[in-house]
Amino acid sequence: MIVSEFVPKPYKFLLDSGSVTYNSPSNIALVKYWGKEAHQIPANPSISFTLNNCKTLTTLQFEKKTTKGFSFEVFFEGIIKNEFMPKIVQFFERIEVYLPFLSRYHFKIETSNTFPHSSGIASSASGMSALALCLVQLEQRLNPETTKAFFNKKASFLARLGSGSACRSIEGPLIVWGSHDNIIGSSDFLGIKYPYEVHPNFNNFCDTILLVDKGEKQVSSTVGHDLMHGHPFAEQRFAQAHTNIDALIKVFKTGDLSAFISIVEREALTLHAMMMSSDPYFTLMKPNTLEIINKIWAFRKKTGLHICFTLDAGANVHVLFPENEANEIRQFVKASLIMHCQNEHFIEDNLGQGAQPIKI
Ligand code: DP6
């Protein structure tokens, strides 16, 4: 499947060498992407908050070469990481038609994260989006007429081919990926900024990430997505994601935080319910994940504050809350929740505006 809009005209020239650097954030889905078809087409639309502090910084050095094929080396926090190569080769193979210069250069990819290494935080979204952005930035140097709007679209389109959720990290603070009847401009190919009114209740919304388990995931996202093929509840789940986005459109307009909480928590638990009812089945929540969830529910009942949780494909808990309730909620998190984290590790984050080029 080739999407011709993103296939460039032949470049008029190639630069001999140089480097580009991009900073790209992670994101947290409110309505989850779980299940995909060939070419990284999502089985249902998803919507996410872009984060502000959890970021990957990537520098791409390029040097013209005459040999055939891809040539690159990859470093993570200064250390060569050959184990990252297969995923990048697969990414390059998928995107070469859109970036024909890929085989003309040798690349040195240097990358680091602002969040702790192996924190169990999905680094594929920030990592793949940062790499896609560096590559599109290089292309822009070869074709300076590219507009900012096209730049962002192409970066998101390419990032999706690296890791689906990465296409939601280019911009912020609220991104939709996947075609939805009631969201104009939404597309299975790339993420777009949420195009409608968002109530001030959601300004600077906060996300404290509780690192319950920093180990390697037992099941990769790719394997998890695949288990939605033939899953007995798949069709109902995909339909539910559409309905939940419709409900969120209303919530973003009215600022109804109670309705927000009910949609977001149901999405998180449905994601895990899909994993627990697939064949083979598995659980990614840990006892501490449930401890935290129960304490959040009890605290919300007692105080009436608008604290809620969401989960990724792992044991960590994202605690979401509005900025004007942050003081009390952060105190509660520190006093009652971080004891359930590995080494009491947590990250305070909030909504961000997306990726940024870095001049070095
Ligand atoms: C549970 O984007 O990591 O975080 O496309 O196979 O790289 P691939 O999957 P990935 O899946 C993320 C799944 C999720 C939900 C979400 O972010 O929407």
Q: Any idea of the CATH topology of the largest domain?
A: Ribosomal Protein S5, domain 2
Largest sheet: 8 strands, mixed
Pattern of helices and strands:
EEEEEEHEHHEEEHHHHEEHEE
Anisotropy-based shape: globular
- Cofactors, ions and other ligands in the entry: ligand DP6
Q: Number of DSSP strands?
A: 14
The portion of residues forming beta strands comes to 15-25%
Q: Kindly state the mean pLDDT as a whole number?
A: 95
Strand-pairing-aware structural class: alpha+beta
- Tally of helical runs: 8
Distance between the termini: 37 Å
Question: Which segments are poorly predicted (pLDDT under 50) over 5 or more consecutive residues?
Answer: none
What is the helical fraction, as a range of percent? Answer: 25-40%
Rg result: 20 Å
What does this structure look like?
The protein folds into 2 domains: 4-195 and 353-357, Ribosomal Protein S5, domain 2, CATH 3.30.230.10; 200-350, GHMP kinase, C-terminal domain (Alpha-Beta Plaits), CATH 3.30.70. The protein is 34% helix and 23% strand. α2 crosses α3 (148-162) and α5 (234-254) packs antiparallel against α6 (257-276). The chain has 360 residues and is α+β, with helices and mostly antiparallel strands. Strands 1, 4, 5, 6, 7, 8, 9 and 14 form an 8-stranded mixed sheet that branches. Strands 11-12-10-13 form a 4-stranded antiparallel sheet. The protein has helices spanning 85-95, 123-142, 148-162, 221-226, 234-254, 257-276, 287-303, 326-337, and strands spanning 17-31, 36-37, 41-42, 46-64, 71-76, 79-80, 105-113, 174-177, 191-193, 206-210, 308-311, 317-321, 346-350, 356-357. It is globular. Residues 29, 32-34, 40, 46, 122, 124, 163-165, 221-222, 225, 271, 312-313 line the site of ligand DP6. Ligand DP6 binds next to α4.
